[in-house]
Amino acid sequence: MTALVRLRHNRVELALHELRRAAGRPLLLLHGLGERSPSAVPPHLAAWPGAVWALDLAGHGDSDVAIGAGYFCEALMGDVDIAIAHLGAVTLYGRGLGAYVGLLAAGGRAEAVRGAILADGPGLAGGGPSPASPAVSTAVGAAPPGGTPDPWAMYELTRDVRPPDYAATFARQASTRSGLDTALAVVGVNRPPWLEAVAQEPGVIEATLPDALALFAPP
Amino acid sequence: MVDSHGLAIAVHEWGDEAAPPILLAHGGFDFAGTFAVFAPMLADAGFRAISWDHRGHGDSQHAALYNWEADLRDAATVFDSISFAPMPVIGHSKGGSLMLQLADALPHRVSHLINLDGLPSRRSFPDVSDHQRTKLMADELTAWLDHRRSLADAQRKPGTIAELAERRSRMNPRLDMDWLRYLVTIGAREDADGWRWKIDPTLRLGGFGPWRPEWSMMRLPDIGVPVLAVLGTEVDPMGWGTAAADVLSHLPPDGRLVMLEGAGHFVHIEKPREVADMVLELLA
Fold it and tell me: How many Cβ contacts (< 8 angstroms) between chains A and B?
């Protein structure tokens, strides 16, 4: 059974799930696009020695949908920062969209993110490295029962542009401002252009998941 | 009001409802009421001038989140509420950029494109060293995240009409005080403790993101309908500082650029008659 904490980011109420109660810096899980927080610590993360929490990003899981949409990854970084305000320093584990948002949070709140692990998952590439032909869609499919994942979030967050040099600036923020020798660990197989650029930055390593968990685990 | 995916968007109009429509898009931190002098000139010339308050601005509903795509959808929803026939569009500043992208994405909806200082160009953004950029970015990120943490129940600062006009004049130094005081009476509401701008208090100027100014300018050569671009020659804090050369190199065939002497960013407010005449000439 997991505990649920409700947090507010502007007009969106977020759901933060406690998956494992333990002493020590928490591992905070960020799901992929269209996913939700798992209901238990996944076996591949069981080696983390401390507490484990998972955040439902806006429009996902038990968090609110943004009426009229307008989803963008910097706002989701803000969601993560609201969770950090509640939890204190964390290590991030992000899948897909959560990996990109985790990168932004690691750069944006470098002093409170003690390592971020970037993993494969839905929504990793976003809308690619540069703008596509513009389109204006005024309709998406119906929302599923319960409202999440918000189909507008699924639409917008597969179209947002993720320039490699922009992503790299967040990696640089994370490595220069966190004080960590290694601030980011890329553990996935896929390398969309933004992640390829991030992987080249100082302070970023490519590693296996067990090694990344061991590296960032608090002593 | 029109409903854009659950959000109420306020639509304003001037002129005869049966007249041919022309759509006006305001700039960021403005509202449709800023066309209060310019739009009636188009109405007097036989047009139905229609504008809307962008989400979070003027009388439109405040949203949880704001992005460019959502503003475009709101604009398309306003189009749909008027006519499916192509119509002329005028956009100022952010509204100019929006209408440019809309004309590229939905060319069957636009008959003429008029852009009033809404063409951000690459060279107008200062070059800074990587080291400086990293530092600026750190400050900006921290400030933005701190702002997001502080938003619950945020309100705009109250004041008298004169105080709100004075505050706005810092970003609109070329506009006269009588006009700014008038804007307060339509762009602000009177609460028990004073006047407050209606704009969503969670919105703030500046910020960061992946967006590049050239992503807007790159749309301009695509446009296949008559294009008029107007830039003021005077430097203005809210302006893009766009250079004529940047526009000329991207203008589509038969497109026209007018440099308006003695005007700043708000060309349609500073020189409404001249701009209206240029528009009417294009539409004649």
Answer: 124
Q: Are residues B95 and B11 in the same domain?
A: yes
- Share of chain B residues as helix, strand and coil, in percent rounded to the nearest 5: 40, 20, 40
Contacts of residue B2, Cβ cutoff 8 Å, sequence gap at least 6 = B8, B9, B11, B52, B77, B78, B81
A67 touches B at CB < 8 Å: yes
Question: Could you give the number of structural domains in chain B?
Answer: 2
Pair A203, A184: CB distance under 8 Å? yes
Q: At what angle do helices B68-82 and B94-105 cross, to 10 degrees?
A: 70
Residues B34 and B146 in one domain: no
Residue B182, chain A, CB below 8 Å: the answer is no
- Residue B213 pLDDT greater than 60, yes or no: yes
ipTM computed for the complex? 0.93
Quick one: B168 and B121 in the same domain?
no
Q: What is the pLDDT of residue B236?
A: 87
Q: Which of A206-210, B13-17, B133-137 has the lowest mean pLDDT?
A: B133-137
Q: Is residue B81 within 8 angstroms of chain A, CB to CB?
A: no
Instruction: Give me the torsion for CA of A10, B9, B197, B98, rounded to 10°.
Output: 90
Residue B207 lies in a domain: no
Residue B127: pLDDT band by 50, 70, 90 thresholds? low
Query: Do residues B49 and B39 make contact, with C-beta atoms less than 8 angstroms apart?
Result: yes
* pLDDT level of residue B128 (50, 70, 90 thresholds): low
Beta strands in B26-69 (DSSP E): 48-52
Which of A72, A107, A152 is closest, CB to CB, to B141?
A: A107
Inform me whether the pLDDT recorded for B240 exceeds 50. Answer: yes
Determine the residue among B4, B7, B9, B65 to mutate to test chain A binding: the one whose Cβ has the most chain A Cβ atoms within 10 Å: B65
What share of chain B has pLDDT > 70, as a percent? 96
What is the residue-averaged pLDDT of chain A?
A: 96
Report all structural domains of chain A as residue ranges with CATH numbers, in order of start. 3-216 (3.40.50.1820)
**Angle CA(B187)–CA(B188)–CA(B193) in degrees, nearest 5?**
175
Check CB contact of B136 with chain A, cutoff 8 Å. Answer: no
B43 and B106 in a common domain: yes
Residue B149 neighbours by CB distance under 10 Å: 15
SS3 B188: strand
B150 interfaces chain A, CB cutoff of 8 Å: no
- Which is nearest to A114 in space by CA: A6, A217, A34? A217
Percent of chain B with pLDDT over 90: 82
